[in-house]
Amino acid sequence: MADEKLTPQQPPDQPRIGVDEWVASVEDKRERYSGVVGRFRRLWDALPVGGRLLVFAIPAAIFPLVTTEGNLFRYGLITLIYALLALGLNVVVGFAGLLDLGYIAFFGFGAYMYGILASGHSGRHWPAELAIPVVIAGGALLGLLVGLPSRRLVGDYLAIVTLFFGQAFVVFVNNANRINFPFIGHTDLTGGANGLDNIDPLDFFGWKVTTTKDYYYFTLGAFLLVMMLLYFVNESRTGRAWRALREDPLAAEVMSMPINRLKLLAFVFGAATAAFAGSIYGAVQTGAFPGDFDVGLLITIYAIVILGGAGSLAGVIVAAIVVNAVPELLRDANQAEWVFYVGLTVVVFARVRPWPRLVGVVAGTIGFGFAVHAIADAVWPRLTAGSSGGEGALAQAVGSWVLLPSDPKQIANFAFVILIAAVLGLTLIHGVWRTVALVPTIYLATFVWENLLIQQTAGATRFLLLGALLVVLMNARPQGLFGTARVEIV
Amino acid sequence: MAQKLLELRSLNKSFGGLTVISDLDLHVNEDEIVSVIGPNGAGKTTLFNLITGVYGPDDGEILLDGKSIVGLEPHQVTNRGVARTFQTLRLFLNMTVRENVMAVQYGRTKATVLESMFRLPRARREEKEIRARAEDKLGFFGQRLVGYRWDQPAYSLSYANRRRLEIARAMATEPRILLLDEPAAGMNPSETHEIAELIGKLREDGGYTILVIEHDMHVVEGISDRVIALDHGIKIAEGSFDAVATDPRVVEAYLGLRKAETK
């Protein structure tokens, strides 16, 4: 027994000295993926990297064949550009852990720089195979310049400095239409508040990218290429050093990693990727406008990175689709209705455990609805005399269950406020009472939905719903869809 | 006369008005194991921080193999051949065990980011070497850190294994001298015994010169060629374990003046 040699590949068949309970629980956790989610998760884990890329690339390549030009632009192309943008931010925030709030400025820089090199506005018409490398190099250089003074800053301080840079960029492009250069004189660099228009389409060695479909495939190719390159970097000594830097900067520095240079490098990578995305965006829009590069877009891109799971490349894709496609789906009341009810059902099924309780909640909600409906019908018929904002089969089915007052405006507004209070209240109570309170809350939510929100799906509601969806998702998985939960030991 | 690998000459460091290291002379010969002891706050960890470049000394010289390393950035000091562990563990907790040991070979590899990005031959070759070296260093700890543990995140290791991983990580930077900051802290008696054996093995098989801070006197007695006692940043005794342990000033520093007199 004593001289029996243990092969390194199997766990030692001995008392596991040093494996305490906590470690054991961590190992269990990995096995605990259950149900449908678990099966997908294990399948995903087993897939090689190339396979994972194909899971995304094949549907993306087919997408233009099954949709119209307008939808292709709204769903597909913008999603791809945002995803490309998020890839770059993922390097800065996800890999290296630097909170860069000026990131969108590099995107804007790319669009403007491309516009300056190739547009009717500037009078220069560089071909794309020349202009794009120059834009990428320029973006990298700008990243270096912003990074140099900020490389010793961490956390909040870096955030403030970069946020300032992002805002300064917007002010600059708003006013750079009358710069007085020495020797050259007054120059209109950016078109000021009106934007830089007449940007040339991308033109590679005479191959002009003109239609939305062409742009879609070009951007898809660019995205896959950038993704692959970033994956290689992440798996290299540099990527490991970035992650080490994110974990513990002091230990990384003492363990032979030059952290200042690594931070700069992450910054430069992010900036170059953003500038590249910007040049595509400028060409797609045939213009660059100051308003496009403001805080709103920054928040969207951050939402993509955080929702996908900081540091996860696959997460970026899925989150970009969620953040872009959901508001578009919600534009139409009937589609929005499906999203609402399916979302509600999924959340209830996923979060209410154990299953007897789940059955209780579902049956209780349905029964509660019919009971309320019957009582209201008998007591005050006006409460059920109205009709839903939706028109589809689903709306018909729900009509005999949820209250639809003939003049819902006032009462629905009150109900909305009560709903918010009720949801907040739900987070305060626990145990059985939470389950009991869940039933009327769900019913109240459908009431507010049918009578108020569904009528404005083209406007505020879809963002409200998206917000609610993000809150729920982040509560369920704080580490993001594809992120791994980070652990600290105190 | 053995070669002096690390030499500190009249080193001084104070934070504000508090003098932490005062006029300290110290040297470690090649292939020697030297222990630094002293009560809490004696300046032991500050000493390590000075050697590794985390702090700059106010005054004095630090020589590695006769060449000054004062003023170098910590990562440059590490590249010259000094590696340390931390008293309060500072692993890259959310990276795997193997990645921890791979990451620290940054300073020993040269592939640029562009080479890695396009998987050029040098990057691929180095990547293989990094992996092999990481597995080799982890293999040094017998069954403790092998096989199925390689792909576990570092946080999932037990406390004792995390301490071992810190040592493996320091070894992977290919140092000439290892600075171990309380390697046996928080360990139970059998683990402490194992660490003491390990430190001996690090010298015999690994060929490292070792400077170790340790509170456990059994460990110090077992491993040290030479013991240096610090108190308030001043070297109060130096020599064999027996000589230092019975030195009245050392006893006084640990137990207080009256105890020392009555003994």
Q: Could you characterize the architecture of this molecule?
A:
The complex is a heterodimer of chains A (490) and B (263). The two termini of chain A are 39 Å apart. A two-stranded antiparallel sheet of chain A has the order 1-2. The longest helix of chain A has 27 residues, at 69-95. Chain A has helices at 21-31, 35-46, 49-62, 69-95, 103-117, 128-150, 155-175, 212-234, 237-247, 249-254, 259-285, 295-308, 313-329, 333-351, 355-379, 393-399, 409-428, 432-451, 460-476, and strands at residues 179-181, 185-187, 196-197, 203-204, 207-208, 287-288. Chain A folds into two domains: 38-331, Orthogonal Bundle (ABC transporter involved in vitamin B12 uptake, BtuC), CATH 1.10.3470; 334-457, no CATH class. Chain A has 19 helices and six strands. Chain A is mainly alpha-helical and 490 residues long. By secondary structure, chain B is an alpha/beta fold. Chain B has a domain at 4-81 and 175-262: P-loop containing nucleotide triphosphate hydrolases (Rossmann fold, 3-Layer(aba) Sandwich). Helix content of chain B is 39%, strand content 24%. Chain B has eleven helices and ten strands. Chain B has helices at 44-51, 74-80, 97-103, 113-117, 121-139, 159-172, 189-204, 217-223, 241-245, 248-255, 257-262; strands at 4-15, 18-29, 33-37, 59-64, 67-68, 82-84, 177-181, 209-213, 226-231, 234-239. Chain B has a six-stranded mixed sheet with strand order 6-7-8-3-9-10, with helices on both faces. In chain B, strands 2-1-4-5 form a four-stranded antiparallel sheet, covered by helices on one side. Chain B is globular, with a radius of gyration of 19 Å. Chain B starts with a strand and ends with a helix. The chains are: A mainly alpha (490), B alpha/beta (263).
